[in-house]
What does this fold into?
Amino acid sequence: MAAISLSLSPNPSFTTTTTHKPSHSLSTPTFLKFPTESPSTIKSLTHAPLPHTPTPTPRATFSTRAAASTTPSTTFHGLCYVLGDNIDTDQIIPAEYLTLVPSNPSEYEKLGSYALCGLPDAHSTRFVTPGETKSKYSIIIAGANFGCGSSREHAPVALGAAGVAAVVAESYARIFFRNSVATGEVYPLESEVRVCEECKTGDVVSIELSESRLINHTTGKEYTLKPIGDAGPVIRAGGIFAYAREAGMIPTLTSS
Amino acid sequence: MAACSTVAPPSTSFISNKKDLGLSAFSSASPLSSQKCKRTSKTVCSVTAPKQSERKPVTTGSVKTGMTMTEKIFARASEKTQLSPGENVWVNVDVLMTHDVCGPGSFGIFKKEFGQNAKVWDREKIVIIPDHYIFTSDERANRNVDILRDFCTEQNIKYFYDIKDLGNFKANPDYKGVCHVALAQEGHCRPGEVLLGTDSHTCTAGAFGQFATGIGNTDAGFVLGTGKLLLKVPPTLRFVMDGEMPDYLLAKDLILQIIGEISVSGATYKAMEFVGSTVESLSMEERMTLCNMVVEAGGKNGIVPADSTTYKYLEDKTSVPYEPVYSDDKARFLSEYRFDISKLEPLVAKPHSPDNRALARECKDVKIDRVYIGSCTGGKTEDFMAAAKVFLASGKKVKVPTFLVPATQKVWMDVYGLPVPGSGGKTCSQIFEEAGCDTPASPSCGACLGGPKDTYARLNEPKVCVSTTNRNFPGRMGHKEGEIYLASPYTAAASALTGYVTDPREFLQ
It folds into this structure.
């Protein structure tokens, strides 16, 4: 399943052959995720407990409780948006919006406002209400081959920017899965059964990551998720760069 | 219709493992295919393995366990002698390609992560090709090309195919057009190498016997700084295509057949290796079409063993030494599919999925509004030659608007300069004009992926289009309710002549 499975052991040839010396730096290692937002409790997971500040946005409430060990217990809670099979990246973010550069903070936010606007009109409940920048749905539930098509990283970025914390799908297209992990924007979780047949858009759901469990509070049903495995720590760190720094694989930039 | 079969155990000894997997994969094919596909006769069962003599151990892999060519490229690029599918390795990248849609974001990540004054790992191994949103008044799209230019100047990037004069592409000698076709034409595709690009159709370059795949901005930012990326070694599906290819078929029909067979996720995470006498007979451009659409089956990469056709194509395009690799006789494949191409018929993929396969003749009652010939998949010189051949054979005029977008400046020159065989010296452009097609447009990705609202030939209304492009998901060419039939250039041209989806045999026989 996992498209990417990072080993904690640094690769010697990698560190020794990096030629350039970064001279400037960034103060925040997790900037990739939230270029526009103030440090919030949402999604910027660390291994330490975070103060839980209620936010006015309707996105997932999200908490991290440090257990006795270093394994954090992560829970997402919110409304779900339900989709079928083969949702391709053109539907997640239509090509006309690819002029928006995800690494540019204001354009990152705009990408979120267009998330899933490529869905055919038959989807009468829109994912992002026109005029809003964020979705009220923080969890997407879908069928097989979610995120197929173009390699545009704008796709997981648009979902993350719209406030999505996790996608639960039967399976993923390779590049979407990898981009989700590399950016740390959303958790791409796999279900063991076709949950999309049993949930409805607007159902209240929770995901307990450490238990690999999805709970639909509206229907009272529970589902087992496939473990996220080694990709989990990468997403939790805030993407592949933040993870590689935490793991000592690449140097932490310091202000000169 | 399509003669397709999984390997027939008694008649073939090419590989001995995992035939059962092939069968199980086969059974998951669409209902259409399972009804229509017949076991082939066993007439086509001989596959010539690439010759193994006179190769150094590094190319043959002098190891106990056989490896596929994809595994060997991974092994060489990660400086290991032996690899198995599933292993994660740091791979040295030979070429990184990016374009105007994903370049600015990749540069942004590179600068944030490696520092504002950081230098790329190798200025000669990065190829930057503006191609997506070029001929548009969209200010952000124009700005993105400016961002590419600034970065290339600052980093002294050797291969940047710039465009400044949007009014006349011919005034920009450096400008190429569609990145995947330009990469090949400019000699950046070489056997045995690793090519990564911020575009899912980067897999096109597998036609050259190299590993090529699409990556996201963040991964590209990492590669820009380090020249390396952590990649998982994919298992390989092998597709053996034998038999003489009928003259009404093109490689597009072959790949639509395969995607219809294994579905849009049938090759997810996997390499797709194409071999057999039919593949050997294909030109480089046709091999590119074959590999181009592996991503539509979820594939990580497509790959064709390099041969004399490859070497001839590369002769005047690159002076960089390269070393091809070939799958070992004992290489392990996840499954093997066999096709007798001589029995295949022209195909389309109906809306809204590339695996929604049907025979072109089964769709003869589908009325269409327009035809589009272009893109990395179907906008190469030979694609236009094929369309011209159909128009020439019919001597008639098109019944629906027919849009032509050459992939690159080189293709455009060929359309206007090369004589079409059997035409008495006419060029494609003359034949297109006589047939009543729209004038060939400026080379770019065009309307294949919709793009900004003012993109030429964009589907701005809910129309039905037969297209030589690669995807027909809802909204792909612009309008969410538009309907796209993916087809070969032959089928597209035939359909333009009738105004309905049309089997090209109506004009070619």
Summary: Confidence is low (pLDDT under 50) at residues 1-55 of chain B. The longest helix of chain B spans residues 139-155. Chain B is about 30% helix and 15% strand.
